[in-house]
Amino acid sequence: MLDIGVTKLLIIGGIALVVIGPERLPKVARMAGTLLGRAQRYVSDVKAEVNRSIEIEEINKMKAQFDDAARDIDRSVNDSMNQIGTGLDGSVDDGSSSGSSSSSIDPYLNGTGWEPPPPEYRHPGKKWRVKKGAMPQWYKQREGVRRHVQSGAARVQRHTPRRLG
């Protein structure tokens, strides 16, 4: 940046002392320091924003490359599945002409679209929202342990003596 040494700073400080005066020099120096700090923060914010935008561009490029690779893989899988499907269709046609019944063929391949039913949902039987304490209720009752939460107002009302009149 700027090549400012100690001697140059002393010369600038001496000139500022003569021109500004000893009474106003601390205020001016404080103001110059705050302005310099603001400028440094502004420059660092701009640098951070530029770095963020560069990173976003790189991420978008990587995403585009990933999407292209995924599309290529999808195409190759679909092509191979189509080739396998046409090969199976040919073998199914050959098998049906030789007198084999269609019931012996796998239901996925004969074009009926039959799929096995999904497994049924079974509830685990647990009460997830109920907190179970480690100490049994009968022990809490016998020892006088609080089992319910009380608000501060309820606690004060409970422990204030009642008037007899």
Automatic annotation (TrEMBL):
<protein>
    <recommendedName>
        <fullName>Sec-independent protein translocase protein TatB</fullName>
    </recommendedName>
</protein>
<keyword id="KW-0813">Transport</keyword>
<dbReference type="InterPro" id="IPR018448">
    <property type="entry name" value="TatB"/>
</dbReference>
<keyword id="KW-0472">Membrane</keyword>
<keyword id="KW-0811">Translocation</keyword>
<dbReference type="GO" id="GO:0008320">
    <property type="term" value="F:protein transmembrane transporter activity"/>
</dbReference>
<keyword id="KW-0653">Protein transport</keyword>
<feature type="region of interest" description="Disordered">
    <location>
        <begin position="74"/>
        <end position="165"/>
    </location>
</feature>
<dbReference type="InterPro" id="IPR003369">
    <property type="entry name" value="TatA/B/E"/>
</dbReference>
<comment type="subunit">
    <text>The Tat system comprises two distinct complexes: a TatABC complex, containing multiple copies of TatA, TatB and TatC subunits, and a separate TatA complex, containing only TatA subunits. Substrates initially bind to the TatABC complex, which probably triggers association of the separate TatA complex to form the active translocon.</text>
</comment>
<feature type="compositionally biased region" description="Basic residues">
    <location>
        <begin position="156"/>
        <end position="165"/>
    </location>
</feature>
<keyword id="KW-1133">Transmembrane helix</keyword>
<keyword id="KW-0812">Transmembrane</keyword>
<dbReference type="GO" id="GO:0033281">
    <property type="term" value="C:TAT protein transport complex"/>
</dbReference>
<feature type="compositionally biased region" description="Low complexity">
    <location>
        <begin position="89"/>
        <end position="104"/>
    </location>
</feature>
<comment type="function">
    <text>Part of the twin-arginine translocation (Tat) system that transports large folded proteins containing a characteristic twin-arginine motif in their signal peptide across membranes. Together with TatC, TatB is part of a receptor directly interacting with Tat signal peptides. TatB may form an oligomeric binding site that transiently accommodates folded Tat precursor proteins before their translocation.</text>
</comment>
<keyword id="KW-1003">Cell membrane</keyword>
<dbReference type="Pfam" id="PF02416">
    <property type="entry name" value="TatA_B_E"/>
</dbReference>
<keyword id="KW-0997">Cell inner membrane</keyword>
<dbReference type="GO" id="GO:0043953">
    <property type="term" value="P:protein transport by the Tat complex"/>
</dbReference>
<comment type="similarity">
    <text>Belongs to the TatB family.</text>
</comment>
